[in-house]
Write a structure and sequence with these properties.
Length: 422
């Protein structure tokens, strides 16, 4: 171990990677400090269902203190990490005193990237946190209220036109959920509106949606979206975002509701490390996920640029972050010296994406699935990885109820005057 071995192990971020690392250190002697700006762990794969009013926030989030209460060696700190001072072996916090460390695991996650156009965020919010999801949910619910009052005007059409930028899993799942809930759950509650008035457009800059999946599954996913009434535009790059809509290619699409799902950028805190970063702001790490020349500083999850056995960057998936978290915890707990560490190898468990009710695509090694079978696999995997029996039962019940009735149970608007001004 390093010369500061009496200092605690510090984990930055309580997401999939950080939580996995903290849990894997439960037998380690010495203190473990977990720092996060939020007090909860969030199951991000289901965040879009909070944004579309299918689930409540408490269904997919759990307090970190509750999750780790049985680990006597873990201390939770609610704060924002500003910088890592590697020379002094300490972490600078926004509100508290600096924290010294013997080793540190950086898992701060990522935010949505606007590719140099950060001013677009106000008119095109992304979906990474619970506040993001609640903001989008409120905008969606208010859209139908406004459209009813404005019936018969161009503004009503704009309110019910939802544009999603980005054809990855988040964009695809969000488009499918909006199409189903908007047309089959919301419109029936507004007698003056018609199903055709609710328009969903999915814009992808590349040649196909779900680029990480095989082309055949991408085609099936697009066909499923189109069967729900979603308009899919590929090879179409967004040029401008305004309060009135988006300029995509040569066409201006009028919409009062644009949602951004087109890219990720790592935490700006990583720049304080003074090491090479890739184009997305991720740290270029070694085979053991540590920094070159600093073997007790590890970076994992969305913050790490780590190469697979095929020399391709690992994707920003929950499974990757969890495996990386357990891997670095094993090194730290065992005080494994740098020259004795085996390289990290990701064990691919497959990829899944749901499009809607009984519609999904899945890839497990050479096996490709779509339709009802893939959707059932998607449901099983997500229920399995949810933390806590209560949450599994609640989510499963909500899914069954919605499947039977098309009546999602989280359609509450928290009145905020600034959001409903014309």
């Amino acid at each position: 171990m390093n010369q500061h071995s009496r200092d605690p192990v510090v984990i930055v971020g309580g997401g999939f990677g950080g939580l996995a690392a903290a849990r894997a250190l439960h037998r380690m002697k010495g203190e473990v400090i977990l720092i996060d700006r939020m007090n909860h762990h969030l199951f991000q794969p289901l965040l879009y269902q909070v944004a579309t009013a299918a689930l409540s926030p408490a269904d997919i989030a759990w307090p970190l203190r509750t999750l780790l209460r049985s680990q006597g060696n873990v201390r939770i700190m609610l704060d924002d990490v500003l910088a890592i001072d590697r020379a002094a072996h300490r972490i600078e916090l926004r509100n508290g005193e600096p924290v010294s460390y013997s080793s540190v695991v950086l898992a701060p996650g990522a935010r949505h990237s606007y590719f140099g156009h950060n001013n677009w965020e106000e008119d095109a919010p992304g979906l990474k946190t619970l506040p993001d999801a609640l903001e989008i949910r409120e905008r969606m619910l208010m859209a139908f209220e406004k459209a009813e009052r404005l019936k018969g005007t161009p503004e009503a059409r704009d309110e019910l036109t939802f544009v999603i930028v980005g054809g990855g899993p988040t964009g695809v799942e969000l488009a499918g959920a909006l199409a189903e809930i908007g047309r089959k759950a919301m419109v029936p509650d507004f007698p003056v509106l018609h199903q055709a008035a609710c328009r969903i457009l999915l814009i992808e800059g590349g040649p196909r949606i779900l680029e990480a999946f095989p082309p055949t599954l991408s085609s099936r996913a697009q066909a499923s979206l189109e069967s729900l009434g979603v308009t899919v535009l590929v090879n179409c790059r967004v040029q401008e975002v305004t309060p009135k809509g988006v300029l995509a290619g040569a066409e201006f699409i009028r919409s009062a509701h644009v949602i951004w799902a087109a890219g990720n950028v790592a935490s700006p805190m990583l720049a304080s490390l003074g090491v090479p970063l890739d184009s997305s702001g991720r740290v270029v790490v070694g085979p053991d996920l540590s920094l070159n020349g600093d073997p007790w500083v590890f970076v994992i999850g969305d913050a790490a640029h780590c190469l697979s056995a095929e020399h391709k960057p690992l994707p920003g998936l929950a499974a990757v972050a969890m495996q990386e978290g357990r891997y670095v915890a094993e090194i730290i707990a065992g005080c494994v010296p740098e020259d004795h560490r085996r390289p990290f190898r990701y064990r691919d468990r497959g990829m899944l994406a749901t499009i809607g009710r009984a519609k999904a695509v899945a890839q497990f090694g050479p096996l490709s699935l779509s339709g009802v079978v893939a959707w059932l696999a998607w449901c099983f995997v997500h229920i399995f990885f949810l933390i806590g029996f209560r949450n599994r039962v609640r989510v499963m019940f909500e899914w069954i109820w919605y499947y039977v009735t098309f009546k999602p149970g989280a359609r509450l608007i928290y009145w905020k005057e600034r959001r409903i001004k014309p």
